[in-house]
Structures are given as C-alpha cells and as structure tokens.
C-alpha cells in the first residue's frame, strides 16, 4: 500500500510495544518509530490514546489504534495479501484458542512477572515466582497442542501467541535478577525453553527485539526501582 503512513508510539522496554514491532516486521510493513518518555508523554500520545494514555499506539494514516493485542489483530487484518503471512490462524476455532492464550499471557503471565519485578514485599515476590513458574509450565503444556508439532505456537511460522509472548523473553534476565532465580532451571518446560531459543532466532522477532537488549533492560529496571520511592509512577 503505497503512500500510507504508519507510526508507532512506544517505549523500547515495553513488552506490549515490542509485540507491535514484531507484527509489523513480520508483515514487512514500513513504519516510523517514536520513542515516548512515559514521564513526559507527548501530546500525540495523549490525543491518540486519551482513555488509557499508554503505549503502544499504532497510527495508520492518522487514525490511532490502541492496546497491543488489538493492534496486532488490526495489522493482521489490514496487511493481507497472499505473500503476507497471516498472524491469526484461518480456522475460527484455532483463532479462538490463539486469542485465549494471548489473553492468558496478559492476565496471568504479565501479572506474576510484574510482581517479581516491583513487589517490595518478600512473601509476595516469592509467591509471584511460584505463580510465574506455574504459568510457564501451563504454557509449556499449551505449546504441545497449539503448535501441532511445529516449531512455534503458530505451527511452522510465528503466530498470534508467539507475537504475544516473545517480547517478554527480553525481560527474562530482569525477572531472574529481581527474583534471584533461574527461570528454566526452576521450571519443567522442555517445549517452551526450546521455543524460546527458536523464536528469538526468527528474523521478524530478532529484528523487532533488537532495540530491547536484555542487559540494558536489567540496568534500566534497576535504576527505575531505585527511583520508585522518589515519586515515579511508571510501571513497565
Ligand atoms: N494492555 C495494554 C498495556 C500497555 C501498557 O501497560 N503500557 C505501559 C508501558 S509497558 C504504559 O504505557 N505505561 C504508562 C502509564 O501507565 O502511564 C496493551 O496491551 O497495550
Ligand atoms: C517534555 O517534553 C517536551 C516536548 O517534547 C519538552 O519540550 C520538555 O522539555 C520535556 N520536559 C521534561 C521535564 O523532560
């Protein structure tokens, strides 16, 4: 689609924002990337997402779309042609299952992960680590059926669940540093750990996640945690 304008408002450390970049790379869509300072949000962000005032936002020919999973579905439905891989499966039941697991990631995985990172209460953090491991093991079980024997949740290529989960892999070093544990050694996830290796080598994922170096994320999150008491309210 020539002459169209695609802009992404995001932050390099956001697992939600990175999903949008993976989807755009996968579809081969050119986009302009704007890094937002979440302590000082741009007028464009506030106007584009007045309800939540959060990143990511996709602005397509001047029209904003918000919420990462909704954006990924919008991208999938907008850039369709035979040579573009589709992100959601064709079959309605398979689509429902993919949406179920993406929703599970947002409800369970993100929550447990955030508590490992930001909870100041030791017992709460320890419980969050247990929850996190349980969620990973559940996803390991899901992989066996959803992938239908392929390398990815999407089968032979990445799909909706891969896009939803892969961006979180950048933060695994943060979860490990803040939770003082080793994720793959503390969990029974033979399929998911292999998936993690494979998906990070997928070209769309690799290119999109290049802005979120895991070591830099640990440094940034440690700095952020230090400043937490100083009145900052951002929660990546
Ligand atoms: N459910 C949203 C979550 C987005 C989100 O939490 N964004 C965070 C950064 S990771 C944000 O913009 N925080 C700024 C704020 O809350 O003021 C999505 O999937 O897009
Ligand atoms: C906030 O952003 C505006 C516009 O980008 C900039 O002019 C201003 O200096 C920023 N303020 C702070 C405190 O960073």
TrEMBL record:
Matches recorded under Pfam families: GST_C_7, GST_N
GO molecular function: glutathione transferase activity
Entry keyword Metal-binding: no
Catalytic activity: RX + glutathione = an S-substituted glutathione + a halide anion + H(+)
Class of the enzyme per the UniProt entry, highest EC level: transferase
GST N-terminal domain: residues covered: 4-83
Domain GST C-terminal: 91-218
Domain of life: Eukaryota
Keyword tRNA-binding among record annotations: no
GO BP terms, alphabetized: glutathione metabolic process; toxin catabolic process
GO cellular component: cytoplasm
EC number(s) given by UniProt: 2.5.1.18
Keyword annotations from UniProtKB, A to Z: Transferase
Name of the protein: glutathione transferase
Species this protein is from: Ceratopteris richardii
Lineage of the organism: Eukaryota, Viridiplantae, Streptophyta, Embryophyta, Tracheophyta
């Amino acid at each position: 689609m020539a002459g169209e304008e695609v802009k992404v408002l995001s932050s390099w450390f956001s697992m939600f924002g990175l999903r949008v970049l993976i989807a755009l790379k996968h579809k081969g869509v050119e986009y302009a990337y704007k890094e937002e300072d979440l302590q000082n949000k741009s007028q464009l962000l506030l106007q584009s997402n007045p309800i939540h005032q959060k990143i990511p936002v996709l602005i397509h020919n001047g029209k904003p779309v918000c919420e990462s999973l909704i954006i990924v579905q919008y991208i999938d439905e907008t850039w369709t042609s035979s040579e573009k891989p589709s992100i959601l499966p064709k079959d309605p039941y398979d689509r429902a299952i993919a949406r179920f697991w993406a929703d599970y990631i947002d409800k369970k995985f993100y929550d447990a992960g955030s508590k490992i990172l930001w909870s100041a209460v030791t017992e709460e953090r320890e419980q969050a680590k247990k929850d996190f491991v349980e969620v990973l093991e559940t996803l390991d079980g899901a992989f066996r059926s959803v992938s239908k024997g392929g390398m990815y949740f999407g089968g032979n290529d990445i799909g909706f669940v891969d896009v939803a989960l892969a961006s979180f892999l950048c933060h695994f070093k943060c979860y490990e540093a803040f939770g003082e544990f080793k994720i793959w050694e503390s969990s029974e996830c033979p399929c998911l750990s292999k998936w993690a290796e494979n998906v990070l080598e997928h070209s769309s994922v690799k290119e999109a996640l290049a802005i979120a170096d895991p070591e830099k994320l640990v440094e940034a999150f440690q700095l952020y945690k230090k400043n937490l008491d100083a009145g900052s309210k951002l929660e990546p």
